[in-house]
Amino acid sequence: MTVPSLEASLGMTVYATRTPGVGGRIKLFAEDFIVEEILADGSKATLKHIPAGLPEGWGRHLLCLLVKKNWDTLAALEKIAEELNIDEGQLHVAGIKDTRAVTAQHISISRVHPEKILSIKVKGLRVYPIRFEDEAVSPSRLYGNHFHIVVRSISYGPTVVEERINAVVEELKHLGGAPNYFGHQRFGTKRPVTHLVGRQIVKGNLEEASLTFLSLPSPFEDPDAREARRLIRDSGNYRAALKILPKHLTYERTMLKHLLKHPRDYLGALRRLPLKLRRLFVQAYQSYLYNLFLSERIKRGMPLNDVLVGDYALELDGCGLPTRRASRVSESNLSQIREKMRRGEAALAIPLVGLEVEASGGVQGEIEREILSSEGVNPQDFRVECMPEATARGGFRRVLTPIINLQTSEASEDPVNPSKFKVELDFTLLRGSYATVLLREVMKPRNVVEAGF
Questions:
Q1: Which distant-in-sequence residues (6+ apart) come within 8 Å of 163 by Cβ?
Q2: Is 71 among the domain residues?
Q3: 153 & 140 share domain
Q4: Burial environment of residue 311 by CB neighbours within 10 A (0 to 12, 13 to 18, 19 or more)
Q5: Which residues fall within 8 angstroms of residue 5, CB to CB, at 6 or more apart?
Q6: How many CA atoms lie within 13 Å of 169's alpha carbon, on the beta-carbon side?
Q7: How many helices (H) and strands (E) in the chain?
Q8: 447 and 362 part of one domain
Q9: 3 state DSSP class of 334
Q10: What is the DSSP-derived secondary structure letter of residue 149?
């Protein structure tokens, strides 16, 4: 089954299931893609119960509910800091949520009075104080996310839709979950460049990293953006490009203004971007390599719900969340690790390339070394000497993600698309896993962008 070229360019070169997809489209409306965050202590950021009033007491951090619609998470944090007239470092989140969606998540804000929070009035953004805490919210406190998704514009009739979805679900159950790829939004779907920028940063090519971010065009952007990027790449006419570059491309505009004042200071231009974004570039490249490692494992018919000698097994905590402890599988511990996997205490993992992580052994290690060689990089490159703040130490990521409490509605007529059908999916995924990775197995879209990914 052929994977769209865009997905292949992100390292997702295969499907884990063989059943044909239902097609269709997601995110026609923001309300078709609802994400609600769940913390490890059971706290849920939900749209159904908006906090009322002001919390009593005091603490180092004010935990709030952030509800956003059609907002990028990093841009939302930047806007909130601007509205509150505080440093962005005073804001903390557990995870980055989808942009084209309605999302509810937790946010910690330090050294701000609750009354001031309620003064934020920005279209598509609302912040509601919940309670004071001594600890800021962070990725380590995140359990996962609950999703409610509407797939519209399905051409197949209800019987075919339900048969195919049920068959895909059964395949994934037999597998033990969905392949834990890094999804489309990790890289950008309409203009997937983050990993390409990261590749150049890791290689120390700051000029090419900057030009990739500024000038790589996308057919899905508006004409002014494409023309501005052409001017940057073909003639280096930053001033002319800045005049026509759309206002909403704030990061590109910031970099161009810096380069106009300081020609060829590409490090300085990149450092005009938020630290989180600079780190995200390198992390996206790690994610791309991981996707390639996982795709090749699937292609070779190697198990995803079992381990082979040389593989890594990642220990899981009582909630099924990954810990930082990973063990290399050997002949002597193989049966022990398999027993821990059976009890839900461990899972097969693939490395995220970085300074402090060795490649797998066995066949999986051969896969990793071959791909790194073809990319022309090695783990020590992730020290990022030209930009130390983006250094990546590496880690491990389980290869399957559990699909928790999956429910699907009956297929029904789509009122927005006459003669076509829609279906709704409701499920929870553990932190770090992407709903679009499950959806790509269910839908198997021919055109990822037209399908709303």
A1: none
A2: yes
A3: yes
A4: buried
A5: none
A6: 16
A7: 14, 15
A8: no
A9: helix
A10: E
Query: Is residue 149 domain-shared with residue 247, that is, in the same domain?
Result: no
Domain that holds residue 411: 15-178+403-453
Give the pairing type, strands 125-133 and 346-352: unpaired
Alpha helices in 14-84 (DSSP H): 73-84
10 Å CB burial of residue 298 (0-12, 13-18, 19+) is middle
In 3D, which of 436, 444, 441 has the Cα closest to residue 149?
Answer: 436
pLDDT digits (tens, 9 = 90+) for 421-432: 999 999 999 999
Structural domains in the chain (count): 3
316 forms bridges with which residues in the sheet?
322
d(CA 212, CA 95): 26
Strand partners, 132: 62
* Residue 420, token pair as written in the block: 């076509």
Distance CA 103, CA 60 (A): 25
pTM of this prediction exceeds 0.90: yes
Half-sphere exposure of 355 (CA within 13 A, CB side): 11
Task: Residue 339: give its domain's CATH number.
Answer: 3.30.2350.20
The rounded distance, in Å, linking the Cα atoms of 209 and 198 is 7
- Are residues 174 and 129 part of one domain? yes
Q: Give the Å distances, CA to CA, from 351 to 290, 397, 420.
A: 7, 6, 43
Any domain includes 189 = no
Per the listing, tokens 């490090």 go with: 267
Can you give the C-alpha Rg of the chain in angstroms? 22
Active-site position among 32, 98, 311, 381: 98
pLDDT, tens digit (0-9, with 9 covering 90-100), for 136-194: 999 999 999 999 999 999 999 999 999 999 999 999 999 999 999 999 989 987 899 99
Token pair 């030009």: residue = 211
Q: Is 198 found in the same domain as 143? A: no
Q: Which of 273, 299, 320 is the last residue of a domain?
A: 273
The model's confidence at residue 411, banded by pLDDT at 50, 70 and 90, is very high
Residues 108 and 56 in one domain: yes
Q: For the residues 397-412, what does the mean pLDDT come to?
A: 97
SS3 of 430, please? strand
Structure token pair of residue 320? 């099924």
In a domain, 5, yes or no: no
User: Does residue 165 contact residue 438 with C-beta atoms inside 8 Å?
Assistant: no
Q: Which residue has the tokens 């991981």?
A: 290
Assess whether 394 and 413 both reside in one domain: no
Based on the residue annotation, tell me whether 98 is a catalytic residue of this protein: yes
DSSP label at 29? S
How far is the C-alpha of 414 from the C-alpha of 152, rounded, in Å? 6
- What is the separation, in whole angstroms, between the first and last Cα of the chain? 19
